[in-house]
Amino acid sequence: MSKYLVLIFLIAFIQYANCQELVPLNAHKFSITDTLKYKPTFYRQLIEDSDSLYSYKTFDTLGNLSSISRTWLVKEKKRKVPVKTQSVLFSPSGDTLQMRVIDLLEKNEGFYHYEEGILFSEVYLENSYFVSGWEIPPNSSQKTSLDEHRFVPRLMNSDKLGVWLKENMKYPKLARRKGIEGTIYMILTIDSEGKVKEMEVGNPEFEPLFATEALRVLANFNWDFEPKEDRLGNPVEGIAVQPILFKLSNLY
Which letter does DSSP use for residue 237 in this model? Predict the structure, then answer.
């Protein structure tokens, strides 16, 4: 009998230990098993990871789908290099708020903004600089031209950011030895006063060494943002995406 009691105890202990590693995600009725990747504000669920495509869904802690992101990759000298990304942001009710498409080869971006799921603005950038755009003002059905992109937070000291990266960024030694290059996307939450409320890496799984170094360097940068505006021109909280390129030909 003692052997059976010991066996039962061991089974119960293992089940208890396993339960301690699970973190429930409220509305989704499932638990997070990888607690190292879990953060208090979201849960990332991998959709696909292949030689040509990496994609995932992000949920908040209430179980609402926050975004879907995709990164297309090509193989160069036995390594995967991102060439295009697409991300879609959703409201808690499930409506599309924004879509962003980045062509890393052509270095251009397209922003598509929605209100209650209806497209009201398109903006195009080249080398992170505004090129053209249009919007449909409230209570109107006619498109008007935009002189600047005001529907996302705007970094006002991008020149200082470039200098800061060159002076402080260090290429991870292991990544250099392996010949790894790529772009890490920093996701910045900017409040209505233009202050950085939260900063995280949008694609840490692509290369954790790059993610760690980007966070280390940018944590001490003096960000200067002009906040996002709503359709009425009021400053509101918004999301800014700052790409950080790790290329072996760079000095840092």
Answer: -
pTM: 0.71
Which ranges in the chain belong to alpha helices (H)? 2-20, 158-168, 173-178, 208-218
Q: Is-contact 137 210, C-beta < 8 A? A: no
Question: How far does CA 73 lie from the centroid of its chain?
Answer: 17
Nearest in space to 231 (alpha carbons), one of 125, 65, 119:
119
Burial (CB < 10 A; 0-12, 13-18, 19+), residue 58, is buried
Tally of CB atoms within 10 A around 1: 5
Q: What is the pLDDT of residues 157-175, one digit of tens each?
A: 989 999 999 999 999 988 8
Classify 59 as helix, strand or coil.
Answer: strand
Q: How many angstroms separate the Cα of 21 from the Cα of each of 31, 38, 199?
A: 9, 11, 26
Residue with tokens 């060494």: 209
